[in-house]
Amino acid sequence: MSVVEDVMVLGSDHPLRSIVRDEHLLLSPPHPPKVPVKLWREHPPLTVVHYPQQYEPEAFAPPRGVYENDEIRVEWQKLDGRQPFYHRNCDVDEISYQIGGGRTLMSELGVIDFQSGEFSRIPRGVAHDNYGREDSHLLFYIPAPVTELAPAQRESGAVFPPFPGWQPGEANEAITQCMAAAGHDITVFGVDEQLLLEQVHQEDRRMAVLRADPGHDVTWLYTTDRIRLGMGTTIPGGQRRYRRTLDADEIQYQAHGHRTLITQRGIVDLVPGDFVRIPLGISHTSVVTEPGDYVSLLSHQELPQVAETARTADAYTPEQLPSLTVEVR
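Above: the chain sequence. Below: its structure as tokens.
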């Protein structure tokens, strides 16, 4: 079957070119070389990381790292209660995506009560803490400054008390560098929590809460010259179309719905709670039988997986294609 592949680069919504492909050849191993020299490497299949979306009680633990390089980190976190300290980043903007449960973000720029599916960005140098209620969320540490690409749905506000039952008490503030990685605290000291949160009255800025437009294939929400972060929407119907990004790894987090990811590094079924990394230069598409969405992060620099693998993609076989008839990009 013939399909179309869009060749993309980071930062552009339009293909460099679109190429007609034979889908079977696109996904199959290469033809054997006709020379007695090894011309290419064997590449491993895609790997999937999974954290359940259903909340399971446990003692407080630091966020779990999923992907990381020397300038970006992707983490998964769950929280039921307060964090042990207020946190101030020296080098990165900290973006969150709310998976589920309840979470109140308290900061010098105001308070946000999150709903599932919402994003926000904490600018570098802004102290913040969280109060979770069976909460789970993603964190993206990205070199500052990061720019919003979508209008705010709403903004942080001066809310006192920040949540019912809050009373100012003993609190610490941690100043960190290197994307707040463990062991990279610069100093930790006691603070007056009431005084810290009242700083909002001296600030002109507020934090924007963003949400993807469900009517778009991909809604890009944040950008720098080396990353893009947004949300992809998948609905059944349409023609199968592949995408190959030449200059960026793509991290995908399946937020809602089931999806089959077809790539030149294997085929894998994704369920809510799954992460997958598609290396730069790898052609891929998705097949769905129900509506869904996924978080997408494009990174110009390779973004290796640091979490434990839950499963791997299956090798392509010609028998699989006829069953993959419902398509969305």
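The longest helix spans residues 23-27.
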